[in-house]
Amino acid sequence: MTGIVSYGTYIPYRRLKRSAIAQVLGTPAGKGERAIASFDEDSVSMAVEAARDALKAAPSGTVEALFFATSTPPYAEKLNAALIGAATQLPGEIRASDSTGSVRAGISALLQGADAISGGAKRVLVTMGDCRLAAPEGKAEQTTGDGAAAFVLGSDHLLAEIVASTSLTREFLDSWRAPGERFSHSWEERFALTQAYSPLLGTVIKNLLEKAKVAPGDIAKIILDAPNPRAADEISRALKLDPAKFADSFALTVGQTGAAHPGLMLASVLPLAKAGDLILVATVADGADAIMLRVTPAAASFKPVHSVGRMIESKGDVTYANYLKWREILPTEPPRRPDPDRPAGPPMMRSEKWKFGFIGSRCVSCGTPQLPPQLVCVKCQSRKMEPYAFADRTGKIATYAIDRLAYSLNPPTVNVVIDFEGGGRFLCEMTDCEPEKVAIGDQVEMTFRRLFTADGVNNYFWKARPTR
Amino acid sequence: MASRGIKDRVAIIGMGCTKFGEHWDKGPDDLLVDAAYQAYESAGLEPKDVDAYWLGTMASGISGLTLSEPLKIQYKPVTRVENMCATGSEALRQACYAVASGAFDVAMAIGVEKLKDSGYSGLVSNVPPNDGTHGTMTAPASFSLLAPAYFKKYGLDADKGKEVLSRIAWKNHKNGAKNPKAQFQKEVSMETIRNSPKIADPLGIMDCSGVSDGSAAAIVVRAEDAHKYCKNPIYIKALSFIAGPAEGPLSQDYDFTTFREVVATAKDAYAQAGITNPREQISMAEVHDCFTPTELVLYEDLGFSPRGTAWQDVMEGFFDLEGKLPVNPDGGLKSFGHPIGASGLRMMYEMWLQMRGEAGLRQLNNPKVGLTHNLGGAPGRCVSFVSVVGSELG
What we know:
Helix content of chain A is 25%, strand content 29%. Chain A is α+β, with helices and mostly antiparallel strands.
């Protein structure tokens, strides 16, 4: 048996109201809002956040493979999964790959992960994140959202067992983006809907039901992720699937999160599922994938670190103007400050555990935790230090500074001095906060972010954020 | 093992200081030559009479050649020193130790910084290649960390805190208005200071020292030789310099209402100089007012005010030009700007003028003991310098 043993999700804190787009552009106002990755987030950083939650909640067992899925990899050349492995401090002895090129990559990666478990791996981490850029005034600007989902797979301690899966692949011009292009193109909607989404989903689901020997009526929940929401209506009619069983696609609260979306929807459904429930997951793009899952009794007692609902409720608005600046769609006058230097390869290699894993040190002699890791103890000057992990610790703000002079896509930069519970102090940037509300004593937690990009090098490190 | 100091063993016999400001028409060479020749003339010496040089600059040049080349120094030792914002003071300290040791008879300490050529706002530092985990906090933000911590600890609400900080800037500009070498020679109203655009809340632009170019120089000899050159030299009573272990950003027991490095340098300097009650014994001080909260905290770290009470002394005018302990009588960094390598020597230049009765409109009544304080880095992670100088031996 192969299946899901743990999961985590991530929805960025910022929301863009569709009416706010309309207000600026004078276009018809869409309903609801969409999730916006902050100026310091991307598909990798969000996939790390989801993966951290999934790993934290996972039963013991060594992760032996890592699959990262996205249609928006921050690096075109350089393994993005390697970054995620470093940030989550997975062992070096793992297979890792990026699954990309299409929003179908999320489910492809999940199936690759399942194959690795069938091939004998103890645990596999599959994490999906997407941060798709859409041109102003386009439909995708309204319908997409940013987010991530992660699953730990295994063959024991299952929350949901993979009963069967089916796939189809078709060459089909629907949505495309050439290297170097920022926005995707798409063919006309009716063509994709009638010639691709409906027939492909219809076939892949029919094949799955046959393979799994399941009747449509036996399915408890349906997760259908298609670029066009009308595909769900057509499939429901054609295959006689009960529309009430279709899971919320978060169109009004999050938007379609690309390669992460079927994962995000699945993670939202699992906490409510009963033992024995059959869940159908299907996605379409350049073909289609479908998976049938059967929920185990263990699912009910599994507590995600952050539920999808909590992530949706924890939010703050971003103005459309700021969103355009964050994505550098709207160029702005650079500050009269030097551009940040690119981080250097050798120092990053030497400090990998610190930079990516946020692992500091603790004095063996006096027990004082400290970060960054020190060679000589700040308290007792002993040279006996051991690694000490800080990423999952919360802290309180000891003092703070609101920097209006520093280089940032989102000024002012808020800096906080954090005192960690259990010891240790760190001075760093705070993100996802309202500068005027920052106060001494506020509780914060750590989050993995992209600080800036210089000479094509994405500088990832950790920041504080108000506890979500 | 002890820090013994060199009390009364070294004297300053000549000083020079350029006007500080936006010298669009002058480079570091022009500024250095100007300050050096002012110092030679002040001491009645020729360039050939100076045996060795210590040049302080953070980023306006590297090596002794930065000085020897424009001055055409004839094959003599020139040491370039750098210790962040305390660079100018460090040059002086090295020159003093050199003559005290007997290695040289006459030494010059000179500092320079040309900040206005970068095209950037504020200071810019060159950082070695690194792993990208170091923060990008600007100097005003780093020092603004003191404000909320101090206000909270001593129960000042945001409004009162802002008033105290503004009063410090107001006082320094008031003094600077009387100084023909200052970058800004105008009084500024409390209202203008309070309402200046925010840079790092609660600091507005008027809570920050300016950005300027400048140079200053001092010539030192052994104290016993001082009267050969000069009728009224000033004497080094103490020189203390400390680089801290940078525990502020690491240790939860540091509360951002003090500079431990400053406390340690003050203690060391007072021991060297034999000062037991700085609030009473020191006639005047030039302190490192890079940002207004820095000066507030320094009053307590230097022992001028008991802990938690400096803000009251500020409001009562204790540190005003007419107060009991005038601080930054020349206008401070606030009025002069902060050309890094020059600032420490510019502070000493005010001691020189005041003790010789040459301070013009801001002349104090016969100051006997003066203190200069220089600081580099950020709260919790800094270098600190304190000197004590006197107009008399003993």
